[in-house]
Amino acid sequence: MIASRIFSSVSSPISVRAAAIFCFACAISCSRVGLAGAAGFLSFFFQNIVIPFSLILVKVGLMNYRHIYHAGNFADVMKHLSVVLILDRLRGKETPFFALDAHGGCGFYDLSSEQAQKTGEWQAGIGRFADDTSMPDDFRLYYDLVKRDLPVKAYPGSPTIIARMLRDQDRLVTSELHPEDVQTLRLNLAMHKGVRVQHQDAYECIRAQVPPKEKRGLVLIDPPFEKTDEFETLCRQMEEWKRRFAHGVYVIWYPIKAHLPVGGLKEAARALNLPRTWVCETLLHPREKEGVLNGCGVIVFNAPYMMPERMAALLPYLSEQMKLFDAPHSWLVPDSASA
């Protein structure tokens, strides 16, 4: 099963050879130590061979990491921390949950690449926490999921972080439309149980997967906002999501730049009137400063119990570590609203 998934995800000659080596390792390990022993070996093989090799492919131009300029920056830290706190709450019940990452990307990003080094954004993001031995426990939940990759100058994307939090009974579907990125995503998630990667438009994937059979779960929507009408599209899609899965937890990530219609997005979220709709933003600059990414935000529908409070308690720590200009948060729709 693993071998077939990897072969379906690669097309270049180098990638095919990598898949062949991986399958050979599978066969050898299973024949010598059985399935139980093979699991540990293959986990080691994937972390120490497959992931570094996929990062090498980025450097020689065989894969396209479009998020690479921004991977591990303040926006990733904020977004991924929010997701981890939500999943931590969902894991509090034994019943299975479903997670959908609608814009999966590549799964891993090479922080030593020319692109990442050019902007250096990760150094002002996740890089600020490397030597901190006194981080709050709730932040450490997130940091422990990403720190294993930092020594090899890699940062995991949101589908990898989510996959690492799945239990045996949980599952993840992630979609990516870019043809090269989706192949890389399949390779990087191949070792995770309960994960399916779709080569599909994000909004079509949500429409196909929601409502999930588990009846509880998280949907993460974080578009690249390359389309000029992305905010309008989100506002339209929210109405459909409410009709299809009104009690699901949704996280919408958005950038804050001068002249972007962020206020309209928040008003549309408020008008949806889903209970426990919460918004949190992290700002590096005043929101109307021209020509730069001033900050980012997340809107959370049906925010799990205590998730907003736990996140809000971490904002002073994030502000100090990442030198934030501001970190406002508020309820758009409180507990008492009727969905």
Describe the structure.
Keywords: Methyltransferase, RNA-binding, rRNA processing, S-adenosyl-L-methionine, Transferase. With 339 residues, the protein is an alpha/beta fold. It folds into two domains: 1-62, no CATH class; 66-333, Vaccinia Virus protein VP39 (Rossmann fold), CATH 3.40.50. It contains eleven helices and ten strands. The strands form two sheets. The chain has an eight-stranded mixed β-sheet with strand order 5-4-1-6-7-9-8-10, sandwiched between helices. Strands 2-3 form a two-stranded antiparallel sheet. The radius of gyration is 20 Å and the shape is globular. Mean pLDDT is 86; it is low at 1-21 and 54-65.
In brief, what are we looking at here?
The record marks 65 as: Interaction with substrate rRNA. With 339 residues, the protein is of the alpha/beta class.
List keywords for this structure.
15% strand; 10 strands; Rossmann fold; disordered N terminus; two-stranded antiparallel sheet; 2 domains; 8-stranded mixed sheet; 339 residues; alpha/beta
Strand content: 15-25%
The H-and-E topology, N to C, reads as HHHEEHHEHEHEHEHEHEEHE
Overall number of strands: 10
Briefly, what CATH class of the largest domain? Alpha Beta
Total number of helices: 11
CA-based shape: globular
Rg (CA only):
20 Å
CATH topology type of the largest domain? Rossmann fold
- Give the N-to-C terminal Cα separation: 42 Å
Strand order of the largest sheet: 5-4-1-6-7-9-8-10
Task: Please bin the fraction of helical residues.
Answer: 40-55%
Which regions have little confidence, pLDDT < 50, spanning 5+ residues?
Answer: 1-21, 54-65
Query: Mean of the pLDDT scores?
Result: 86
Class of secondary structure makeup: alpha/beta
Largest sheet: 8 strands, mixed
